[in-house]
């Protein structure tokens, strides 16, 4: 039986105290990787750390506190961690909370600037910080949790649609440059996944359309051929596969995990 095996690899998983990020961290730990959790709430980080699997003697899980809404805080925290821990990090999962829902014509300039910093600039800093270790190891996996909006914009997510597209183009360009070093760059595009982010979108849509939340949920489900919302675990298993040696020839892709909802090819 073929197994996803990340033994001997270390992964930095951002936004890993809840939702998709936490599910990915748990899946990578189950696959044998040492996992470094990153988020802004230290108590939640400690709680998440305590439940990570340890299946082999090489696994040493850890965490760092970083507020991705403040680029300078991410820079300081990550640099401090890397100064104390010199072992290479082979897997980077870029994942952070998305911009607030809302119509694009009502979005402020500050909302775009904040989202650009929180997503693209933080991603860029992390890649540059970890790149030498990946090159030295001859192994790297950069996974970006984005959105199906890079293929098909989602109503009422104006700022998010814009920034997600920028991150997707950044990742594709990066994939051209890094493949020669044994480093792959891929995007995972969650559809409607049962997380607090989905709850926020339902509430915002309900308010803007002045209809009940149950009606919003029903409308969303009608757009999904699978007839249900996804679970974070389902996306996490794909992330674990892409992070493993099994996926060494998969590079520069954007893979939707959406129950068939996205109509674009």
Mind explaining what this structure looks like?
This protein is of the alpha/beta class and 265 residues long. It has a single domain (10-257), classed as Rossmann fold (3-Layer(aba) Sandwich). It contains eight helices and seven strands. It has helices spanning 19-30, 42-50, 71-84, 109-137, 158-178, 196-209, 213-222, 232-243; strands at 10-14, 34-39, 62-65, 91-94, 140-145, 183-190, 254-257. The chain has a seven-stranded parallel beta sheet, sandwiched between helices. Helix 5 (158-178) links the parallel strand 5 (140-145) and strand 6. It is globular and about 55 Å long. The two termini are 32 Å apart.
CATH class value: Alpha Beta
For the biggest β-sheet, the strand order reads 3-2-1-4-5-6-7
Amino- and carboxy-terminal Cα gap: 32 Å
Radius of gyration: 18 Å
**How many structural domains in the coordinates?**
1
Give the CATH architecture. 3-Layer(aba) Sandwich
**Percent range for β-strand residues:** 5-15%
Let me know the largest β-sheet.
Answer: 7 strands, parallel
H and E string: EHEHEHEHEHEHHHE
Question: Might you state the CATH topology name?
Answer: Rossmann fold
Q: Are there runs of 5+ residues with pLDDT below 50, and where?
A: none
């Amino acid at each position: 039986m073929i197994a996803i095996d990340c033994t001997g690899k270390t992964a930095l998983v951002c936004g890993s105290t809840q939702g998709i990020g936490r599910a990915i961290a748990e899946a990578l730990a189950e696959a044998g990787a040492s996992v470094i959790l990153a988020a802004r709430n230290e108590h939640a980080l400690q709680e998440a750390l305590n439940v990570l699997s340890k299946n082999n003697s090489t696994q040493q899980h850890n965490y760092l506190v970083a507020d991705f809404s403040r680029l300078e805080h991410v820079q300081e925290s990550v640099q401090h961690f890397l100064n104390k821990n010199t072992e290479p990090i082979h897997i980077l999962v870029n994942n952070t909370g998305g911009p607030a829902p809302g119509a694009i014509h009502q979005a402020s300039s500050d909302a775009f600037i904040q989202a650009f910093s929180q997503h693209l600039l933080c991603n860029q800093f992390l890649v540059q910080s970890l790149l030498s270790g990946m090159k030295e190891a001859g192994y790297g996996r950069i996974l970006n949790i984005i959105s199906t909006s890079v293929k098909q914009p989602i109503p009422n997510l104006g700022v998010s649609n814009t920034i997600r597209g920028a991150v997707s183009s950044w990742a594709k360009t990066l994939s051209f440059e890094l493949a020669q070093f044994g480093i792959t760059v891929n995007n995972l595009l969650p559809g409607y996944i049962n997380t607090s982010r989905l709850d926020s979108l339902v509430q915002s849509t309900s308010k803007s359309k002045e209809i009940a939340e149950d009606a919003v949920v029903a409308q969303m489900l009608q757009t999904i051929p699978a007839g249900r919302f996804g679970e974070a675990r389902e996306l996490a298993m794909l992330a674990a596969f892409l992070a493993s040696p099994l996926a060494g020839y998969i590079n520069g892709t954007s893979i939707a995990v959406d129950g068939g909802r996205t109509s674009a090819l």
